[in-house]
Amino acid sequence: MNKNLIQFIIEEERHIPGATGDFTDLLGDITIACKKIAHAVNKGALIGVLGSAGSENIQGETQKKLDVITNDIFIAENEWGGHLAAMASEEMDEIYPIPAKYPKGKYLLTFDPLDGSSNIDVNISVGTIFSILRCPEGVTNPTAADFMQPGTKQVCAGYALYGPSTMLVITTGNGVNGFTLDNDIGEFMLTHPKMMIPADTQEFAINMSNRRYWEEPVQRYVEECVKGKDGGREKNFNMRWVASMVAEVHRILTRGGIFMYPFDTKEPGKAGKLRLMYEANPMSFIVEQAGGMCSTGRERIMELQPNGLHQRVPVILGSKNEVERVVGYHKGA
Ligand code: P6P
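That is the input. Now the predicted structure with 6-O-phosphono-alpha-D-fructofuranose docked in place:
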């Protein structure tokens, strides 16, 4: 019989000295939020949640109604439990301190409540990404500065993928495990234990329309993939681009691949498109725990010292041997 997520976490927790069950309860609250988001995403037009909210987030991106709805769901499910001191979201300019009427806890939560939301109106898979940090010792009223911890400090990272199946994939630093939502009983069941990324791949994912803005090492790598055996590589490659990072990462966890949203000169002052705190770092923790590699092209993403809640970074992640090749091209440039 497949284990459900909470049973799996409780059994994991027994290996963690001093574990109090606080983390397990927090993950339970996050899981309920993901189930509620899955329901809203699945109902879509039937309950009038598609289309634009008529507002913009701090990124200057038009918010979809579901961006706002899913952010509200994450806040409502996680603010009352007493496990968090504060939260931060792609959809909120500032951090969200836990209201005084609720007890505060020892964790900080960052999340992108609906990643890939530009796909929601065209019924393509979207996801939720979350990351759990420890609130610094003795800090009861955290500020944004208390969130500025490198990815190596993450206690847990996970994503929910709202696709043909709704899945939850998490790591607490002891490998990566995938759970599928059984709608008949409303539980996430362990279906993909110990997920590992093959070290080699013949599939790359990048938004080719940005090609003229990339740096030379990325231009070289992608050109070689496109040429395949005719360009010096030992194999031919296939290309994918879903424009939903959660779907790309899940495909790579399942069958290998390399995903790149590299540095580009498209918009001056933007180091890349993806955000460090609630996209690049949680996905890096998951990918590294599954034997993959994550780099900006020049540095390991999880070692970056954050300097802002909504800081953007270049992201090159996936099958270790291919990411190492791209990093090598950067070194040689
Ligand atoms: P583009 C979604 O908006 C996102 O943050 C990632 O999920 C996705 O990989 C990327 O942006 C898509 O960007 O420029 O191709 O639309």
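The radius of gyration is 19 Å.
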